[in-house]
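Technical annex, item 7. During the second reporting period the consortium partners agreed on a shared format for inverse folding records so that results from different sites could be compared directly. Each record opens with the tokenized structure and is followed by the designed sequence. A conforming record, contributed by the partner at site C, is shown below for reference.
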């Protein structure tokens, strides 16, 4: 198969030059609801992007997809254990290919002659190139429990180049229930990697934004620890010239930005968090709330997972309290507060 690639994802702007490139998930419980509404549909070029480091953990005891241990192949539809919202669309199944991407259209056949990001397809591409799984294994697994499950698809011991026989890269796509976060995780393998023929795309593609128009996408400029990002708001075409492998544990995260629309003002004021960045603790200050006497405070990590929850007694004249974060890893978190029907959220950096 010819090896020309490009990529077309659908996400909200990703802070390409932000000093703290973690996706902000303001009110995680509302994301699925908002994504399901046509009015909140969002092209993938509006997603937020973050690069970080984690651990590549191979799937053990998953479901094998045997027909992908080949060259130029696509799987049958694989049902998801939960509804996943992607670019405002409800996705209930995926198809995986030997060329390092998954297709969410549900009725695809393998006929790709190019790496098609930005061409109106609907793909999620951790490493979209002319690859082969002849000596590799593909599988998927579900971890966690509802409503916080994670679906992982894995390409283990894949080779870049349709004639290659020695594995050079393993990688995974993770889909997070509820938050609709997408994550790519990588591990280079011991086999040789020919940078002269590698020409990959990494990113997400939301399909055509308009009838006859090109797709909306987010495309990484390289496979480094902090890649620049291009999307259909800043570039006519995605990047399809990546010729290096991501490092072991390299992690790329894409998060829907429509979570921001769920942010509701808490009364007439807003919550304050200081100092920010925080080291061992921060102060949370709330405005006066005449009708409410208690509030739930939840600290959420960058994947939308609650890591701390407490019930706070409110003072009618205004409330101030200390929040201990000494046990949390460094990173960007969201402080979510709910008092009756009132909601608010604020970000805080933990150092």
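Designed sequence (site C submission):
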């Amino acid at each position: 198969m010819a090896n020309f690639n490009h990529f077309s994802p659908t996400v909200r702007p990703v802070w390409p030059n932000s000093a703290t490139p973690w996706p902000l998930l303001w009110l995680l419980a509302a994301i699925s609801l908002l994504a399901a509404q046509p009015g909140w549909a969002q092209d993938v070029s509006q997603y937020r992007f973050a690069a970080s480091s984690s651990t590549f953990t191979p799937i053990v005891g998953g479901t094998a997809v045997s027909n992908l241990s080949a060259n130029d192949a696509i799987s049958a539809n694989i049902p998801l254990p939960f509804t996943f919202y992607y670019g405002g669309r409800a996705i209930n199944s995926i198809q995986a290919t030997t060329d390092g991407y998954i297709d969410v259209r549900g009725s695809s056949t393998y006929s790709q002659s190019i790496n098609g990001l930005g061409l109106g397809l609907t793909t999620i591409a951790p490493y979209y190139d002319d690859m082969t799984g002849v000596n590799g294994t593909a599988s998927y697994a579900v971890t966690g429990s509802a409503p916080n499950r994670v679906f992982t698809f894995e390409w283990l011991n894949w080779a870049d180049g349709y004639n290659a026989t020695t594995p050079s890269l393993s990688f995974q796509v993770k889909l997070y229930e509820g938050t609709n976060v997408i994550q790519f995780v990588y591990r280079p393998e011991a086999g040789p990697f020919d940078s002269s023929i590698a020409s990959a795309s990494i990113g997400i593609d939301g399909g055509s934004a308009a009838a006859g128009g090109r797709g909306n996408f987010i495309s990484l400029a390289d496979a480094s620890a902090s890649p620049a990002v291009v999307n259909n708001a800043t570039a006519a075409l995605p990047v399809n010239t990546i010729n290096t492998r991501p490092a072991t544990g390299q992690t790329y995260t894409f998060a829907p930005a429509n979570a921001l629309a769920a942010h509701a003002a808490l009364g007439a004021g807003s919550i304050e968090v200081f100092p920010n960045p925080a080291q061992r603790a921060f102060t949370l200050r709330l405005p006066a709330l005449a009708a409410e006497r208690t509030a739930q405070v939840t600290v959420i990590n960058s994947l939308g997972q609650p890591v701390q929850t407490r019930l706070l007694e409110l003072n009618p004249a205004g409330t101030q309290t200390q929040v201990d974060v000494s046990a949390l890893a460094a990173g960007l978190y969201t402080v979510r507060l709910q008092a009756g029907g009132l909601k608010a959220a604020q970000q805080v950096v933990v150092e």
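The radius of gyration is 21 Å. Confidence is low (pLDDT under 50) at residues 1-41, 258-265. All partners now use this format for quarterly exchanges.
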